[in-house]
Design brief:
The protein is of the alpha/beta class. The protein is built from 16 helices and 14 strands. It has an eight-stranded mixed sheet with strand order 13-12-11-7-10-9-8-14.
C-alpha cells in the first residue's frame, strides 16, 4: 500500500485500451493513455470545478440514512472478489487466504498471467478454483454482478478506485479500495451518497491504522496518557525514485505519471488515518480546513538525468509535483495536524507518526516517548516499556504474517472478522472520504499559494457524537 506519480503533456484521449494499461496494468509504454478522458484521472482531479473551496464546502442533501454504526450482516464464510493482482493485490490475496472462514471466489485483472497466478494461489490453499475475469477493460463489472460475493477488494491504480467502488456498491456489494478512495471531491461525495443509498459499506483500507505502534498510541491517547490532545503529524516519506523508473516493477509508468499532473499530497492516508484515529476525527472532532505548501519539483528530473538513457520515454515528461509537500489541517476543536509527502528525494522511510498533548508526546522513526511523570530531565523514554497498552489484535497475533510489519494481516483479519461476526467496521465511508480529501484539496491550496481550502463535513453533522472506532474491544466469537 505504499506508492506515487505525474506528467505535463496531455494524455492521448484516443487510446483504445485505457483501463487495461493502468490497472496493474497493461503495456508499459502506453500506461498514460486516456487518464483525463476517464473523468477520474489526475487532469480531472485538478480541474477548476472539481475541488474548489466552494465545492468542497457544499454539503449535499443526504439520499439515505447514515452508515454510522451500521453493522455488516453476519455470515459463516466471507466470500471475497479481488480486482487488481499486481504488486499490492498479488500479495494481499495471500493474507485473505490465510484467514480462516474466508473464501476468494473471484479474481480480476486484464493481465492474464497475473490472474492465473492468483487463481493458482487459491487452489493451492485448498479452496475451489475462483472465477477469473480477464476480458478487457470492464470485466470487473461482471465480477461485481456475481451473487456469491460479499466483499469486493480493489487494488488498482488510483484513478480506477472510484469507478470500481461505485460499481460494487450499485451491485449490492460491500467494497474496500487501496489508497486513496477517489481523487475528486464530487467523487467522494458520490460514494458517500451511494453507500448510504445502497446500505453497503465503502471503506478506505488504510493498513497503517493497524500498525502496532499506531494502535498502541491510539489506546494510550484514549486513556488520557497524553492529556488533552493538541497536535499530531503523519507522512508518506519513501524514496520511490528507483521503483518509479524501473520498467518492470509497475505495469507501465502509471505512478510516475502522477508527478506530471498534480502538485498536492498524492498519498495522504498513511499519515492522516492514524492521527485522525488518535483525535477521534468524525467521532467528536472533525477536520475543517487544509493549507498546503510545496517545494520545487527537482528530484525526479535529477534522478532521470543520472540514471535513464537518452531516448527513454521518461524524457518526454515534465514533473510538477513538489518533491516535499507539507500540509497543515485544523480541526473544529483547534487541534493541528501536519501531513507530509515526499517520494522523490533521498530519505529513510518515515511516516513521522507523532502525537502531542498537554501531558507529553510520542514520536516515531525512531520510536520515542516523553510523558510527564514517567520521563524527566528532557530525556526521551523507551516506548517498549508501554507494551501493555498494545491493542488486543497485537496481543492475539504477536507475529502476524505478511508485509509491512504485519499490519496488512491485521487489516485483513479484522475486516473479515467484522464481516463474519456482523460487527460495525472500525472505519466507514465518512473516514474514507475525509482521509482522501487532501489529495484534491492540497493540490488546490498549492495552486492558490497556500490559501486554506475548506474540508467538508461528510458526516453531515454527526461528527459531534462520540462513537467507537479503531480502539475496538475484542469480540466474542
Amino acid at each position: 500500500m505504499h506508492e506515487a506519480h505525474q506528467q505535463n503533456q496531455e494524455p492521448d484521449e484516443a487510446g483504445p485500451s485505457r483501463r487495461s494499461v493502468l490497472w496493474t496494468a497493461g503495456a508499459a509504454g502506453a500506461a498514460g493513455l486516456g487518464l483525463a478522458a476517464l473523468g477520474t484521472g489526475p487532469a480531472a482531479a485538478a480541474a477548476p470545478g472539481a475541488a474548489g473551496s466552494a465545492a468542497a464546502a457544499t454539503t449535499p442533501r443526504p439520499q439515505g440514512k447514515t452508515m454510522i454504526g451500521v453493522p455488516f450482516e453476519r455470515r459463516s464464510t466471507v466470500r471475497v472478489g479481488i480486482i487488481g493482482l499486481g504488486n499490492r493485490g498479488g500479495s494481499m490475496i495471500d493474507l485473505f487466504l490465510a484467514v480462516p472462514h474466508v473464501q476468494v471466489v473471484a479474481v480480476c485483472d486484464p493481465v492474464k498471467e497475473k490472474a492465473a497466478q492468483a487463481a493458482a494461489k487459491v487452489t493451492k490453499a485448498g479452496q475451489p478454483a475462483p472465477a477469473v475475469y480477464t476480458n478487457g477493460d470492464h470485466d470487473f463489472e461482471n465480477l461485481c454482478r456475481r451473487s456469491d460475493i460479499d466483499f469486493v477488494y480493489a487494488a488498482t491504480p488510483w484513478d480506477l478506485h472510484f469507478e470500481m467502488a461505485k460499481t460494487a456498491l450499485l451491485n449490492g456489494k460491500h467494497v474496500g479500495t487501496e489508497c486513496p478512495l477517489a481523487l475528486r471531491m464530487d467523487q467522494l461525495w458520490e460514494l458517500v451518497d451511494l453507500s448510504e443509498r445502497t446500505r453497503r459499506h465503502c471503506l478506505q483500507l488504510e493498513n497503517c491504522c493497524y500498525g502496532r505502534n499506531e494502535m498502541r498510541v491510539l489506546r494510550m491517547a484514549h486513556a488520557g496518557l497524553f492529556g488533552d490532545l493538541l497536535h499530531g503529524a503523519g507522512a508518506y516519506i519513501h524514496d520511490l525514485r528507483g521503483l518509479m523508473f524501473d520498467p518492470t516493477y509497475y505495469e507501465g509508468p502509471w505512478r510516475r505519471l502522477w508527478h506530471t499532473r498534480l502538485r498536492g499530497d498524492l498519498y495522504p492516508t498513511h499519515g492522516f488515518g492514524p492521527v485522525a484515529n488518535y483525535m477521534d476525527v468524525n467521532r467528536g472532532d472533525r477536520v475543517v480546513r487544509i493549507s498546503s505548501f510545496g517545494t520545487p519539483a527537482l528530484g525526479l528530473a535529477a534522478y532521470r538525468k543520472e540514471h535513464m538513457p537518452a531516448g527513454d520515454p521518461s524524457w518526454k515528461e515534465s514533473y510538477v509535483e513538489s518533491d516535499r509537500t507539507i500540509s497543515l489541517l485544523q480541526t473544529a476543536k483547534g487541534r493541528v495536524i501536519r501531513l507530509e509527502h515526499d517520494v522523490s528525494t533521498p530519505h529513510p522511510y518515515s511516516r513521522i507518526n507523532s502525537l502531542g498533548g498537554t501531558r507529553g508526546l510520542f514520536e516515531d522513526y525512531p520510536e520515542r516517548i516523553y510523558l510527564e511523570g514517567d520521563q524527566s530531565n528532557d530525556e526521551w523514554g523507551d516506548f517498549g516499556r508501554y507494551a501493555d497498552w498494545d491493542h488486543w489484535l497485537w496481543k492475539e497475533h504477536a507475529n502476524p504474517p505478511g508485509g509491512h510489519g504485519g499490519m496488512d494481516y491485521m487489516l485483513v483479519f479484522r475486516l473479515t472478522q467484522c464481516l463474519r461476526l456482523g460487527l460495525v467496521p472500525d472505519f466507514d465511508v465518512y473516514d474514507a472520504a475525509t482521509w482522501s480529501a487532501p489529495v484534491p484539496l492540497s493540490d488546490r491550496s498549492l495552486k492558490a499559494q497556500g490559501t486554506p481550502q475548506e474540508i467538508p463535513d461528510f458526516t453531515r453533522g454527526l461528527w459531534r457524537k462520540a462513537r467507537p472506532g479503531m480502539d475496538s474491544a475484542k469480540p466474542a466469537e
